[in-house]
Write a structure and sequence with these properties.
Strand content: 15-25%
CATH superfamily of the largest domain: DD-peptidase/beta-lactamase superfamily
Mean pLDDT: 96
Radius of gyration: 25 Å
Helix content: 10-25%
Length: 450
Amino acid sequence: MVLEGTARALLRRLAAEQAQQRVPSMVAALVRGGETVWFGARGRVDGEPPTERTQYRVGSITKTFVATMVMRLRDEGLVDLLDPLGKHVPGTPLGDVTIAQLLSHTSGATAESPGAWWERTPGAPAADMLAALGPESVRHRPGRRYHYSNLGYALLGELVARKRSAPWERAVREEILEPLGMRDTTTRPRAPHATGFAVHPWADVLLPEPENDHGAMAPAGQLWSTAADLARWAAFVAGDTGGVLRPETLAEMREPAAVEDADVWTRGYGLGLQLARHAGPGGPRRLAGHTGSMPGFLATLWADPADGVAVLWMANTTSGVRGGFETDLLDILAKREPPLPAEWVPTPVDDDLLSLTGPWYWGPTPYMLRLLPRRGLSLTPVNGQGRASRFAAQADGTWLGLDGYYAGETLQVVRSPGGVHLDINTFVFTREPYDPAVPVPGGVDADGWR
């Protein structure tokens, strides 16, 4: 738990938001190291302060669960992210867009479904929604730009249902919620839950908002959850997958696939996860998570995998909560209780790897090779100018590039009578600049340096 002074500062920020923005009720929590270290609540739900078990509607945070199901299907080999939607859900005008484009909102699909405003009306079955789609369902060339699409996630929910031969919500419950212990996350509200309200712009009065089962559009925003359950989901997004998803798959979901504000890159989207960059007292953060809104409700969840901290909040109001509220909470925690660096301890390494450490040269450019855990390698330019990448050890004795220019490329250690060199997809790194004793492509001038 946080210190008393930190808890007071966090509660003060929450109280100011609830009072100044006239929010009927709000809950918020901070998660660090997989545990809830602070929970706060303001306002009333049925005359009582909300608790960690009070349900709120989380809106588009639902999309993160649907995306996780799609990635499970991918990891099982049942779908490929480059598959066109029509391979699995035939008969729509969006049959040529890929699953990856739907996940990242780059499919060009229209933002909303055909018919009435889906968030305020009962939903139609999937068959009816699919039959209603026409040429207007495509607004942009697939892959051209980021365009948020609730319809796209309705189609992904149908994809999950067809591949699992069960409703999407059952697949989410059985494969994600139950294994993670999130038993208070449901598609319809259960007591105790907040009622969704609109707050009059010029008077302190409320208007109840409608709540419906949205049928085929439910995968875009149907779920209800609690602060306790969302704290577990925040830990998941930060990296504690609990066996539900491979850590490397989650890392793939957090990679930027599209940028909302290309000129400054503060907001983007991965595969089912919103992304944000934030500069605070704890240093620059790369956040992953999602926001959510439905009539009468707002919610936000952000996690920073770099230090395992996350923030979440939920409120029963249609609008009003300011955009910087969640990062203010993160900043208070970082300023008052910065995390301690992990304690350094020596780690045994194999002699064959130890002999590879130190300087290498790509032509005349010096690089430094360092060892990482689990036989990993880090290759970085000495002067900071050049291509830096990390590499993961593979079973065949090679290394796979994880990031940077060499992401996905293979590093091989080549030993010959003339010495040893590194080969990274035809690029040769030598122990001396243009070492003539190893086979440098193009050869080395016989007269040497002069």
